[in-house]
Amino acid sequence: MLFAFRHSLKLSWINLLGLIISHVLFAIGAILLVSIAFLFGAGGTFWAMIGTDYKDPAQLLESSIATGFMFLIILVILYILLIFIGSLCNSIWMGGTYAFSLEASQNNSSTIGTYFSKAFLYMFKLTWMSFIFSFVVVIPVMLVLYLPLIILDAVNIVPSFVLGLLFISLFIVAMIFLIAIAIHAPIFIIQEGAGAWKSIALSMKLFFRSIGQMILSALAYLSSFIIIVTVMYLIMLCLVLVLGAVAELTGNEAIPGVIGLIFLVILYLLFIPLTISFPILWISDRYNKKLRQHLFPPSNGSNEGHMHFRINQQPFNQPFTFDSPPSSNQPPKLDL
């Protein structure tokens, strides 16, 4: 945790810049997509209306149905592309944050250059990993956990309060498992050179090899996030109360309102990057110090198995196997 405290402020202001850049890129991409969709829609509507006899209700109805169907297809495609662009932009700050954290964990220092070079280098892999995790891990886990409960509720065998307790308990268990897998998978992409599929497989393998430590990592991630957000809202609440009292005493609500709005924006800009930076710094350092050895144990009785390549170097090109540990102090190349 001390490691996370030392580096969190530096990473937070870099993360703020990364978040701004990713949001600007998303806005540009969204505007371009909407503009293209509008042009296609307008062109398609014009094409559909050519030759239509407006006095014939049947032709007019047929043309309207064709136009509506075309707009529906365009909206669906636009929605999918916006999700993809959003995930891509989200992967920019994710890759940068993990790269900075992992390099800081190895060298006790990192730079803005590492953040942005790795952010753009790994954004496609991280985006692909996010889609795989959502559709191949999250949805099946939820179905396996909750489908039996839905069946039990339908046949009305188990009392409702028991089903409610089971629902809450399974939800907590599922969230801890999914968070533990999700927060470690990017580490395998950035530090160990794994592909998107392999990163999730390695994260799941690590979970079942070290369940206790992975659960602690998930709880550490959640607790640090909750604590930072709670502190932020407590400060905001105190600020609102103080400025409200000032406005009440002076009878002037405009100036305290403007000052309050400025301070709230500043707090938001300070704390939101911190909610991202601190937990990932903590998790990255925990992985290198306590978890990595479960997948890459020391070889030949030495401590070298605990060492790994620095993220600004190329990984060792060696075939990957789940069963055989690497023979050198560098992990195998896991690219798919």
Automatic annotation (TrEMBL):
Record flagged with keyword Transmembrane: yes
Keywords on record: Membrane, Transmembrane, Transmembrane helix
Regions crossing the membrane: 20-48, 69-93, 126-149, 161-183, 220-246, 258-283
Entry protein name: Glycerophosphoryl diester phosphodiesterase family protein
Species the sequence originates in: Hazenella coriacea
